[in-house]
């Protein structure tokens, strides 16, 4: 361990005394101390606790030790309006006296559906569920049933939630399988190709067209590295799937209402057959959406001959998520094109400033992203080009990733994947603070003796 990092670890420990106590308890209650695997934020690497959060507002998270973080993780990317946006809080407050859960059809679910259908090029009908994990599972089931075919091709590094259907080729924990307890990828009928590998994708589609139900992909690779599509990549896959009668599923659980009000499909002008959404559309309350072409969704109409069962979920269409979702979409819509172009401008500016820092210090880091999605990848050696998750995995320097995370937390900036996402609440001051922290952190990583 290098000297500066040792000091930084002690600084962190001193700043997080209460969190450290809670962490001890959490590790007795939850495997690895968490209910979502990534929430230790690499602090286990140092035998430290992640910050326990007690409050959030705008771009800030406050932890139990009263550290106030400028947050670029913003609730897994979901809080595009910032934390605790007044319009969302008001919508939830207005709803609560009328009940927090009906377990019955309700009008506000129609109102949220109206907004999603109107905004999203591919969505003619939809079903609500409670998580993205459910949504992608249902999307796959619809595709398999519609096509009568079994296989599904996905992008290597693409995370579609933890369901048994698509939890393949994410990080490949061991021997081509992500988790004990699920079938191997061949039995599961899952094929893979690298993001931005147009030829590889076309080959998979052509070679398997008789068995291939669908290609499922995020239009922008999200957890796999915030990697945008090369020119023509999305179009080529759309063309090839259409030509071969294979359905195209866009998982827009991150990109939905993030890149534009028409989501990534509107932003890039490529329309899939089925779309999944989550995160932003729930306004911070649990949600999942599977939507798409009417003839595909109508398979779920069991009353009229449909045979695809995709509708369960005690909490599906619950009025709190519906109200929070409506408030979010209405606020985004009121912001108009400007809201999204401002986010794009801020994202571009930030990416180029971070690239300057990386260049000036000659560091083995690589900046990716598009619009308000931004990542910094730490590598063992400098890389000139990163276009897919496989490349990230090969060159990733886990030690630097953990060090960077701790250095940023010590400077009261919360990041994930190097940075994360912007919200409409991020200010020039927030950006300045992040850049200062990145500058200091990267220098330490570059020079630590
Ligand atoms: C692209 C994508 N799909 C699916 C999921 C799973 O969604 P949830 O966490 O709501 O189950 C996520 C979550 O991060 C995601 O990023």
How would you explain this protein's 3D organization?
- The protein is α/β, with parallel strands linked by helices and 449 residues long.
- It has 2 domains: 3-83 and 337-447, Alpha-Beta Complex (Aspartate Aminotransferase, domain 1); 102-317, Aspartate Aminotransferase, domain 2, CATH 3.40.640.10.
- The chain contains 14 helices and 14 strands.
- The protein has helices at 3-15, 17-29, 86-95, 107-119, 132-147, 185-188, 198-207, 233-243, 263-268, 294-297, 319-360, 389-395, 398-410, 428-447, and strands at residues 53-57, 60-63, 68-71, 125-129, 151-155, 190-193, 212-217, 247-251, 274-277, 288-292, 365-370, 373-378, 413-414, 420-421.
- A 7-stranded mixed beta sheet has the order 4-10-9-8-7-5-6, with helices on both faces. Strands 1-2-3-13 form a 4-stranded mixed beta sheet.
- Helix 1 packs across helix 13 (398-410) and helix 7 runs parallel beside helix 8 (233-243).
- The longest helix is centred in the C-terminal third of the chain and has 42 residues, at 319-360.
- The protein is globular.
- The termini are close together.
- Bound molecules: pyridoxal-5'-phosphate (PLP).
- Pyridoxal-5'-phosphate (PLP) is lined by residues 76, 131-133, 136, 159-161, 218, 222-223, 251, 253-254, 278, 288.
Q: Low-confidence parts, pLDDT < 50 over ≥5 residues? A: none
Largest sheet: 7 strands, mixed
The number of distinct β-strands equals 14
In CATH, what is the class of the largest domain? Alpha Beta
Tell me the overall shape.
Answer: globular
Which ligands does the model contain, each kind named once? pyridoxal-5'-phosphate
Termini separation comes to 9 Å
The CATH topology of the largest domain: Aspartate Aminotransferase, domain 2
Rg, please?
A: 22 Å
**Side-by-side strand order of the widest sheet:** 4-10-9-8-7-5-6
The helix-and-strand class reads alpha/beta
Give the CATH H-level superfamily of the largest domain: Type I PLP-dependent aspartate aminotransferase-like (Major domain)
Summed up, the helix count is 14
Q: Please write the string of helix (H) and strand (E) elements.
A: HHEEEHHEHEHEHEHEHEEHHEEHHEEH
- The percent range for strand residues is 5-15%
Q: Which architecture of the largest domain would the CATH scheme give at its second level?
A: 3-Layer(aba) Sandwich
């Amino acid at each position: 361990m290098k000297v500066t990092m040792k000091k930084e670890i002690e600084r962190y420990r001193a700043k997080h005394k209460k969190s450290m106590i809670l962490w001890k308890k959490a590790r007795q209650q939850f495997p690895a101390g968490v209910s979502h695997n990534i929430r230790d934020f690499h602090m286990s690497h140092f035998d430290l606790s992640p910050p326990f959060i007690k409050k959030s507002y705008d771009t800030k998270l406050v932890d139990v030790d009263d550290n106030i973080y400028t947050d670029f993780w913003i609730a897994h990317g979901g809080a595009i309006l910032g934390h605790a946006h007044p319009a969302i809080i008001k919508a939830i407050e207005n709803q609560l006296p009328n009940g927090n859960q009906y377990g019955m059809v309700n009008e506000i679910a129609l109102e949220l559906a109206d907004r999603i259908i109107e905004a999203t090029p591919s969505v003619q009908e939809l079903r609500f569920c409670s998580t993205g994990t459910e949504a992608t599972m249902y999307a796959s089931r619809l595709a398999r049933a519609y096509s009568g075919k079994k296989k599904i091709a996905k992008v290597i590094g693409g995370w579609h939630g933890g369901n048994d259907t698509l939890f393949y080729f994410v990080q490949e924990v061991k021997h081509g399988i992500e988790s004990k307890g699920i079938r191997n990828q061949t039995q599961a009928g899952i094929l893979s190709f690298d993001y931005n590998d147009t030829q590889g994708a076309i080959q998979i589609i052509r070679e398997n067209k008789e068995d291939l139900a669908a290609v499922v992909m995020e239009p922008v690779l999200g957890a796999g590295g915030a990697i945008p599509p090369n020119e023509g990549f999305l179009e080529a896959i759309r063309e090839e799937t259409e030509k071969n009668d294979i359905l195209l599923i866009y998982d827009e659980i991150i990109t939905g209402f993030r890149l534009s009000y028409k989501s990534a499909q509107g932003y890039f002008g490529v329309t899939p057959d089925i779309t999944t959404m989550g995160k932003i559309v729930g306004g911070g309350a649990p949600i999942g959406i599977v939507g798409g072409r009417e003839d595909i969704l109508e398979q779920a109409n069991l009353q009229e001959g449909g045979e695809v069962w995709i509708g369960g979920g005690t909490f599906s269409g619950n009025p709190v998520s519906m109200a929070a979702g409506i408030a979010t979409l209405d606020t985004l819509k009121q912001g108009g094109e400007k809201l999204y172009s401002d986010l794009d401008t801020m994202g571009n500016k930030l990416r180029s400033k971070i690239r300057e820092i990386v260049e000036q210090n000659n560091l083995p880091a690589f900046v990716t992203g598009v619009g308000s999605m931004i990542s910094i990848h730490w590598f063992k050696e400098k890389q000139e080009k990163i276009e897919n998750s496989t490349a990230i995995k090969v060159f990733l320097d886990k030690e630097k990733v953990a060090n960077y995370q701790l250095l940023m937390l010590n400077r009261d900036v919360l990041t994930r994947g190097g940075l994360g996402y912007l919200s409409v609440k991020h200010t020039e001051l927030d950006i300045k603070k992040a850049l200062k922290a990145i500058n200091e952190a990267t220098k330490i990583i570059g020079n630590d003796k």
